[in-house]
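This protein record is not my work; I was only asked to verify it. Would you go through it and say whether the fold makes sense for this chain? Here is the record exactly as it was handed to me.
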Amino acid sequence: MKNLLLLCLCLPCFMAGQSSSENSENFSINVSFSETAGDKSLDGRLLLMLSNNDEQEPRFQINDGLDTQIIFGQNVEGMRPGEKINFGTEIFGYPYANMNEIPAGEYQVQALLHVYETFNLSTGQTVKLPMDNGEGQQWNRSPGNLYSKPFKIKITKDGVRNVDVIMNEKISPIAEPENTEWIKHIKIKSEKLSEFWGRDMYLGAHILLPKGFKEHPEAEYPLMVFHGHFPSDFGGFRTTPPDPDLKPEYSERFGVEGYNIFQQKEAYDFYKRWNEPDFPRFIIIEIQHPTPYYDDSYAVNSASQGPYGDAITYELIPYIEKEFRGIGEGWARFLYGGSTGGWEALAVQVKYPDEYNGCFAACPDPIDFRAYCLTNIYEDENAYYYPGAHKNLEVPSHRNYLGQIQSTLLQGNHLELVLGDKSRSGQQWDIWEATYSPQGDDGYPVRIWDKKTGEINHEVAEFWKENYDLRYILERDWDKLGDKLKGKIHIYCGDMDNYYLNNAVYLMEDFLESTTSPYYEGEVLYGDRAEHCWNGDPEEPNHVSRLRYNTMYVPEIMKRIAESAPEGADLTSWRYE
C-alpha cells in the first residue's frame, strides 16, 4: 500500500519530466463560439480538455482518479460570438498545472463553456453562478452550455500553436418526467428562496403514493423523506418485471456482472412489497433542491445559499402533505438517506428536532469536523499534507476496502479549482464550503482553506464549528436537544468507507454513548470491511442493500410511531390492506 501511495503521489512529477516543451510561447490554443451556438455575450467558466483516450468525448473523462484526462479552465465575462480566448501556459490546469507539462502525443481536444447567470442577492451582493437547468448541476451535461465536437491535434516536443477550437453546439433541454399512477411530480416557487436569490427559485419533489390512495380518500399518511443527490425521477420502483432482452452490464464499482438486470429486479420487488397487505401505507418523497452551487442544497439554511432548510421544512413539505393527504405533524415524518443524504437526514433532524420523528443516516458526510475526512480543520495547519521534519506526505481522499489509495485531497481540490473558482466547481469540497462557510464581502463563500496550497483558515473553521459541526452542536446543546432527539438518531457506516467517513462517526458515537442525561436511545452500527455507502444491513453487501432504502427502515419507523405518537393521533386510517 505504501508503494502504491508513493506511486500515485509521484506520478504527476514523473510525467512532468516527459513534458513536450520547456518554452511557454510554444503553447497556444484559441477557443471561441459561433453564432449558431449563441448569439449574445456570455459569462461563465471556459474549459479546455485534452484526451488521449478515444472511447468518450473528453468532457466525460474528467475526474480525480487515475484514469482522468486533462483540463484547463478560466473565467470569461461578456464573451462574444467569434471572440477568441487564448489558453496558454499561464492558465491553471489539472492534472498538469501548466500546459508545458503535457507529454507529446496525439490528443482529442474539446472546449466547453459552463454558462453563468447573474444573481442580485438580498444581502446586497451580485454574484455570477451556474443555474441548474434540470440536470442536477453537471457541468458537462447542463442544458444551455456550449461545446465543441472533439477533433485530434498533435502536441510535439516543441508544443502546439495556432489551434482554433470553435464551440458550435449547445446542450439541449431536458424533458420533465411524466406523472404515472404511482409517481407524481411537483414543483413550487419558494418565496423564501426567491427573496434571497433575487429571482424566482423553485423546489420540486418526486412522490411515491401508497397502494389504495384513490380508494381511501379518508386516509392520511405518514411521510418518509428520502434525502440524496439530485433525483431525475423517483428511483428504484418498477411496475413490470425486468426486461428479458436487457443486455447484462458489468458494474466496475461493485464487481458484479449484470448489475443493471439486478437493479430492475430489485425495483420490481419493491413494487411488489409496496403492495403487500401487511406493508404500512406511507408517502415517500425524493426532493429536488439543486442550487447554483451543487446538485442539492444540503437541506439546511446557509449564508451563501439561502434558507433551504426553512424552505423545505416549512414550504415544500407542508405543500406536499396538503396535496397528497399527509398527516402533517412531526411525529409522522421520517428522514433517511446515504452519503450527502445521510448528512442531510441527521442535520435536518438536529436543526428541526420537533418537525421530524427519526432519522436514519447512512455513511453520512463528515458529522464531526475533527474528522473532516482525514483533516482536523481546527488543529491542522494544512489540509493537503501530513507535515514532517524533512518531507511532507499528501493526504489521501479515496481508498478501496483494502486501503489502496485512488486519489488525494490536493488532486481533488485542484480539479475543482480548474472547474470553477469561488466555490463554483459544483463538486464535493466546494459545496461543503458553500454550505458551511460565512458569506464573503464579494457574495461568495469564504474559503475554508487556500485552494492551491491547502492552508486552513481557522476563523472560518470556527464558523463551521458553531453552525454545522453536528457532533459539536449536539454536545453543546444537548441540555436543550436531548429530550427532543431521544430515540430519533440512527447512524450506519462501513469501517472501510471510501472517503474515511467512518472516522467522524466514531467521534459522534463516543459522544452519544457517553451521554446519559438523557441517553440518546438510538443506534450506531458499522459494516465490517464495508465501503461507501453501507446503510445498516448486516446480511447483504452494499450493492444489494443500497437498493433497499425504502423498505429497510420501515420496522424501526413503525416501532417509533407506536412508542411516540401523541394521544389521539391517527394510527389507523393508513393501515388498511
